[in-house]
Design brief:
With 140 residues, the chain is mainly alpha-helical. The chain is built from four helices and two strands. The protein has helices at residues 6-18, 37-48, 77-94, 111-116, and strands at residues 58-63, 69-74.
Length: 140
């Protein structure tokens, strides 16, 4: 199975290491620079034996420009690595079968690339953007 390929895990490590938050420790205090072939082999074995259990994420709050706080979950490095491996496997599996006009949550695609593909799109003068996350908390 592709999930057991050591090269896949090395590539996943490289993807995470390149991220700005890769050196942020999770609740276990470990960072991505503690990667080793043995650590990846242990994770592969746990997954293969159906014994892998993700660790609860550490919740921190990041200030937003409007003065409010945005919650941010900080997973452990092992969890980040497993998530990245699964992301890569799923992308390899499903990217070839997605329709070319599908843009949501795909590599090198966004709402901007979707708008460029609309034949009759000629631009806009304005957009309305709003966040409805808490709206229902305050209605009667």
């Amino acid at each position: 199975m592709i999930l057991n390929a050591p090269d896949l895990w090395e590539q996943a490590y490289g993807n995470i290491y390149a991220n700005k938050g890769g050196m942020t420790p999770g609740v276990d205090g470990r960072t991505i620079d503690g990667y080793s072939d043995e650590r990846a082999a242990n994770l592969r074995e746990l997954l293969r034996e159906n014994r892998y259990v993700p660790t609860p994420v550490q919740r921190v709050y990041i200030p937003k420009p409007n003065g409010k706080l945005r919650p941010l979950g900080m997973p452990t490095t092992d969890d980040k690595l497993v998530q990245e491996v699964w992301r890569m496997v799923l992308e390899l599996t499903y990217e070839p079968v997605f329709h070319d006009t599908s843009h949501g949550f795909r590599p090198k695609r966004s709402c901007h690339t979707a708008l460029k593909n609309i034949a009759y799109w000629s631009g806009t003068k304005w957009f309305i953007e709003f966040d409805i996350e808490g709206y229902l908390d305050h209605t009667s």
